[in-house]
Amino acid sequence: MMESNENILEVENLKINFKTYAGTVKAIRDVSFNLKKGETLAIVGESGSGKTVTTRSIMGLLANNAVVEGGTVMFHDQDVLKMTEKQLQDLRGAKIAQIFQDPMTSLDPTMRIGRQIAEPLMVHKGMSKAKAMAQALDMMKLVGITNAENRINDYPHQFSGGMRQRIVIAIALINYPEILIADEPTTALDVTIQAQILDLMRELQNKISTSIIFITHDLGVVAGMADRVAVMYAGKIVEYGTVDEIFYNPKHPYTWGLLSSMPTLETNGDELPSIPGTPPDLLDPPTGDAFAPRNSYALKIDTEKEPPFFKVSDTHYAATWLLHPDAPKVTPPVQIVARQKQFAEMQKKLAAEKLSHPVEEEEERQ
Amino acid sequence: MAKYLAKRIFYLLLTLFIVITVTFFMMKLLPGTPLTNQAKLSPQEQHLILKQYGLTKPVWQQYLLYVVGIFHGNFGTSFQFSDQPVSYLISSRIGPSLLLGAQAMIIGVLPGILFGALGAINKNTWIDSGTTIISILGISIPSFVLAVLLQYYVGLKLGWFPIADWGGFSYTVLPTLALAASPFADTARFIRTEMVDVLNSDYIELATAKGMSKWGVIYHHALRNSLIPVVTIIGPLAVNIMTGSMVIENIFSVPGIGEQFVKSILTNDYPTIMAVTIVYSVMLMVVLLLTDIVYGIIDPRIRLTGNSN
């Protein structure tokens, strides 16, 4: 993949609240991350952890009752949060595009799909309808819609879910955006279709060299897709690192919980562990580490003081007191220990063979 | 499409036949005879007249004769106006009614759509509250009350338009306004609800994410989708206008079919009652058929002639 070290997006200390009748919901509580050119960053977490709100803020698509309490979202040299509505319109669908979760509801039921795909061209490039339709047709072929010439004037209901998601992808990519936000793009699809859509996204990423922010709750999807992973819990990022570091050397007990509850090829008949309890109420977030009440490894300090990020490697950070030099040594769940062992072997092998790309290694093993 | 239309027209005729039958027998249950108010006539004279019109025969025979007559295009002659064929009576009076109905639908439904859309777009603001209050008033105030208010204030006090009677366009203004209130209010309420839903839908968010302006999204994506269900209430609205016009035509002395209908019920003018009923039924059923066809044009999901799938 065509990664570089240039950051095209930098989110810093983002804090977003929602005003509701019940009170102020602190949905995003100090989130920072960056996105490099050409890379895929996965944001993983349970429902309600703030993944979607974070990405909505990048496109300036926050709901009316959302209040940005602080932070910046720098796209190149501009703060998206300070943009005017007109500037946001120029950004959306041109520089930053989004794929939504449910392809069954995200297309306009009364508009022909060719027109829907062509619309971003007409809006941003002032293209004539005929010219835009011609490009839309090319895009339909690119995203793998068979018999595109005859289907360009069809309506969304004439397509299956997987085909509709291809159309949504075509809409998102027609202007070759620099950033593609994929918000659970495969959650609503059958497993076999999921794989096709993920393949398509990887293929197109290479073709048009876009950066992807991939939001999901499904770690299984992340492994084959992402370069880096950020794990979110209760409106915060609790751990981030490269995909190998998160999968094989996780440090945060929440990441342990997520990984342990994911079936692998080695899982045999045993009951799949789950994380006990439910995420905290963000109307009134707990003091200390928000995950502490559900964490069997919680220390006393977790309930008093929020853990800062501790560095694991140059690319890997985790916010857990367990990484403090004075913290007691704990043994992670068996599944994690096994993963860490695999990781150590992999590192050794890599060092020996001096293989440059661990991602390919990872794909082979799957 | 042709097959569908043929089927629909067949059912339309069947329904019409049932309506004719039911109305005929219900009409016979009305108390009195066409001669109830003619006390000056002796019973023998009354009997003679009834016999002349075939009203002394058993009801089932009268019914059969009537149905056979219809098939020959004979709707009978009016009892009120001696020797005037009902068909002439109706054709001379349907014009004003259709004009009023069409005007009321247009100035009711179109601003209703605009009002409802404005309310939905500015949800939970003073604009929304304002449009909601106006449309609730439109629903709650009966058309005849509005008619009298219009006559008094706009007609009598301001003197802008004639209070009653029938002449040129200016005579149609007040009755049209009185008739339009209900379709206006219904449409506004309906569109608002529908559009609030549509504006919250995923495809509107996707349209916004394409970088379209707020009004671009509303015009290209929200409006058409909000209009789909509104088409379904056009039928009932047309019924409102028809029934409303009976009262309104009386208040404004419009020589329309509704006014005629009320008069003929009061005088037991059987052939006219039957004929007006048939005209109303046909109008309503045609409106419903058109609604279904328009529905298919607006909403591709239920289009009648699918070329794929």
UniProtKB/TrEMBL annotation, chain B:
SUPFAM superfamilies: MetI-like. Keywords: Cell membrane, Membrane, Transmembrane, Transmembrane helix, Transport. It holds the Pfam family BPD_transp_1_N. The keyword Ribonucleoprotein does not apply. The chain crosses the membrane at residues 9-27, 98-121, 133-154, 166-185, 227-252, 272-298. It is found in: Cell membrane. It is a multi-pass membrane protein. GO terms for biological process: transmembrane transport. One of its GO terms (cellular component) is plasma membrane. Residues 94-291 form the ABC transmembrane type-1 domain. PROSITE patterns: ABC_TM1 (PS50928). CDD domains: TM_PBP2. PANTHER family: DIPEPTIDE TRANSPORT SYSTEM PERMEASE PROTEIN DPPB-RELATED (PTHR43163). Belongs to the binding-protein-dependent transport system permease family. This is Peptide ABC transporter permease. It comes from Secundilactobacillus collinoides.
